[in-house]
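Give me the fold.
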Amino acid sequence: MSTFDKHRDTLEVHETMMGASKGRLAVALDLLTDALAMVGQHGVYCQSTRMPGKPTLDIALVLEQIGDAKELVQSVIELEPGRGRPPGPPEAR
């Protein structure tokens, strides 16, 4: 089953509200958020022996990568022509 089949209803709603590209990015952002929550919860149970209270290194890296992907997707969704915000990373603004 393809991604488009699995998330058909959600895609339809978001694409109707935001257009095809931004709607798909919004659904991708929702999926990344869900993954971030699941991995974060897993990190509660798999804590580092070197740093108690912190997730293991592999989980910390996955959390960081998902967080970075979310930030990139958010930057694309928020950029709309005519809003006066130049493209590029927030540090460059």
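The chain has a mean pLDDT of 85.
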